[in-house]
Amino acid sequence: MRVKQKYIIDFAKGITWALVLYLIYLYNQQDNITAWIYLCLHGSYGIMWVLKSYIFPDKTWESKVGFPYAMLIFIGLILYWAPAYIITSNSHQASNLIIVISIFIFSIGVFYHFVSDMQKFIFLKNNSGLIKDGFWKQCRHPNYFGELLIYLSFLLLVVESSQWWIPTAVLLLFIIAVWIPNMIKIEKSLSRFDDHHEYKRKTPFFIPYLF
Questions:
Q1: What is the pLDDT, as a whole number, of residue 85?
Q2: For residues 153 and 75, what is the distance between their CA atoms, to the nearest angstrom?
Q3: What is the pLDDT tens value at each position of the chain, 211 positions in all?
Q4: Are the CB atoms for 106 and 43 separated by under 8 Å?
Q5: In principle, which of 6, 41, 55, 82 could form an S-S bond with 61, CB 3.0–4.6 Å?
Q6: Rounded Cα distance, 45 and 182, in Å
Q7: Model pLDDT, residue 59
Q8: CA atoms of 24 and 131, how far apart (whole Å)
Q9: 3-state SS assignment for residue 83
């Protein structure tokens, strides 16, 4: 049996709000504002991802994979829920400053991630070639940069916990094992365009205006 990667990813991200809500009530964290903030951030991100998947889908996730690999994807995505478990099972409460910073970073991340993906979707629907303006003028992978900020906002909510290293390790693992290889694969695909070399020379790789 083979299934599209998008179905696995959409399911895992789409049920995040329900999972966090379950943990809040399982560990009696109804008075824990950090748990509710996390629910709002990660839960809304999961819903937005599913909506994006159907309104302006990414062809990267349209390919089909076998059941073992599909389960590997699902298990990997479960690891992203580590902050939810840490917050609820340990009654962890982030400071007000951390909560404010987390919400701020999340908002910027959502803007970069979803709007740059929309720009790419509209461009490729009507054109072929490189996208070199808008978000894609700031860096070559603005959607990944946005996603980085989103997951950093989740991680920040547990940065004051003794178990902060767990979601940090998970995020680093995904950056090294999934994100960077995907970005390199995209770079190789785009190298077929004559102006890619010049675009690559002038435009930062991942962090707008910096790297």
A1: 97
A2: 21
A3: 889 999 999 999 999 999 999 999 999 999 999 999 999 999 999 999 999 999 999 888 888 999 888 899 999 999 999 999 999 999 999 999 999 999 999 999 999 999 999 999 999 998 888 999 999 999 999 999 999 999 999 999 999 999 999 999 999 999 999 999 999 999 999 999 999 999 999 999 999 999 9
A4: no
A5: 6
A6: 21
A7: 85
A8: 43
A9: helix
- Report CA dihedral (112, 114, 116, 120) to the nearest 10 degrees: 170
CA 180 vs CA 45, 99, 153, 187: distances in Å: 22, 28, 20, 10
Determine the 3-state secondary structure of 195 from DSSP: coil
Long-range contacts of 169-174 (CB under 8 A, 24+ apart): 170/79, 170/80, 170/82, 173/79, 174/76, 174/80
Strands 64-66 and 2-4: antiparallel
CB-CB contact of 53 with 61 (8 Å):
yes
Using alpha carbons only, what angle is made at residue 10 by residues 150 and 72, rounded to the nearest 5 degrees? 90
What are the tokens at 98? 């951390």
Alpha helix positions (H), the chain: 5-14, 16-26, 33-55, 67-78, 82-89, 96-126, 135-138, 142-156, 165-174, 180-190, 196-202
Contact 76, 8 (CB under 8 A): no
Q: How far is CA 13 from CA 17, 142, 155, 198, in A?
A: 8, 20, 16, 37
